[in-house]
């Protein structure tokens, strides 16, 4: 029987707890423990040692302070879901990894499960790196925060731009020709912004901190690979699903499969060789 690792979810609102649990239904490889009181969170974090603690309190800062007061060496990563009325910036000790996200955006927009999967992959990767430091450089706390912050902000930005674009398309049929031209100009600008090269450059910089030799070695071994090919390979190296890749690249599932097939041909992989597995072990 498989023993699942635990994620501790703490909130002073039963409605918030229910919403968080509902949004995490797809994160089925972990067991969830809930708590509504500060004392319970402290006790559970000590006895169970969860891989991640999700906090959604009216005053997350107070909970963090209590955890640190109880244990100055506290090191469990935290994800704080900010409420609408929580405007002050969290004050965090340097050795603590804390991710923050809007409760409304994460839970009500169903982005929480995707973001938590990303956070857990980062945590898992860091743990793996600790046992094989000759192969990978450890991520510093700041690097981990930067990568996650970048991922969340990019996800949020794309979602907002997509909503604006769809709204413009709805208005398109009811305006005159001159206004239509202006609206289409805005839509085209959004498309360009959504696929801004800077997003890739930022991602690439953070990615190479985790996999310093991957892109260089891959490009040297397969000089025929395009920038788009390399981007796709990075996502596979991160073990992202086809659905995640489809959403990030803005393409359909058939295009994902076609790109995978073409990559295998460029790399001269045999029919039985799995591209994802090949890249997982490449330059590692």
From TrEMBL:
<keyword id="KW-0175">Coiled coil</keyword>
<dbReference type="InterPro" id="IPR016032">
    <property type="entry name" value="Sig_transdc_resp-reg_C-effctor"/>
</dbReference>
<dbReference type="GO" id="GO:0006355">
    <property type="term" value="P:regulation of DNA-templated transcription"/>
</dbReference>
<feature type="coiled-coil region">
    <location>
        <begin position="147"/>
        <end position="181"/>
    </location>
</feature>
<dbReference type="GO" id="GO:0003677">
    <property type="term" value="F:DNA binding"/>
</dbReference>
<dbReference type="InterPro" id="IPR036388">
    <property type="entry name" value="WH-like_DNA-bd_sf"/>
</dbReference>
<protein>
    <recommendedName>
        <fullName>HTH luxR-type domain-containing protein</fullName>
    </recommendedName>
</protein>
């Amino acid at each position: 029987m498989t023993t699942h690792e635990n994620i501790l979810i703490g909130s002073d609102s039963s409605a918030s707890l229910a919403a968080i649990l509902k949004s995490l239904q797809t994160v089925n490889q972990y067991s969830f423990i809930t708590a509504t009181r500060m004392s319970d969170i402290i006790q559970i974090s000590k006895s169970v040692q969860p891989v991640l603690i999700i906090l959604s309190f009216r005053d997350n800062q107070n909970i963090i302070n209590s955890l640190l007061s109880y244990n100055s060496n506290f090191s469990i990563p935290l994800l704080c879901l900010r409420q609408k009325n929580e405007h002050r910036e969290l004050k965090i000790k340097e050795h603590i990894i804390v991710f923050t996200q809007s409760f409304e955006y994460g839970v009500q927009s169903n982005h929480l499960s995707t973001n938590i999967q990303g956070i857990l992959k980062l945590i898992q990767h860091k743990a793996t790196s600790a046992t094989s430091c000759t192969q990978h450089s450890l991520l510093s706390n700041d690097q981990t925060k930067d990568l996650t912050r970048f991922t969340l902000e990019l996800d949020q930005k794309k979602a907002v731009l997509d909503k604006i674009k769809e709204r413009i398309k709805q208005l398109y049929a009811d305006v005159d020709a001159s206004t239509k031209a202006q609206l289409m100009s805005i839509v085209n600008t959004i498309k360009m912004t959504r696929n801004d090269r800077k997003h890739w450059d930022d991602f690439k910089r953070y990615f190479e901190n985790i996999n310093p030799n991957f892109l260089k070695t891959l490009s040297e071994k397969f000089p025929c690979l395009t920038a788009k090919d390399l981007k796709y390979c990075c996502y596979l190296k991160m073990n992202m699903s086809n659905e995640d890749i489809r959403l990030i690249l803005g393409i359909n599932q058939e295009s994902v499969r076609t790109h995978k097939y073409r990559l295998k041909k460029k790399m001269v992989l045999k029919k039985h060789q799995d591209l994802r597995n090949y890249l997982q072990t490449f330059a590692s």
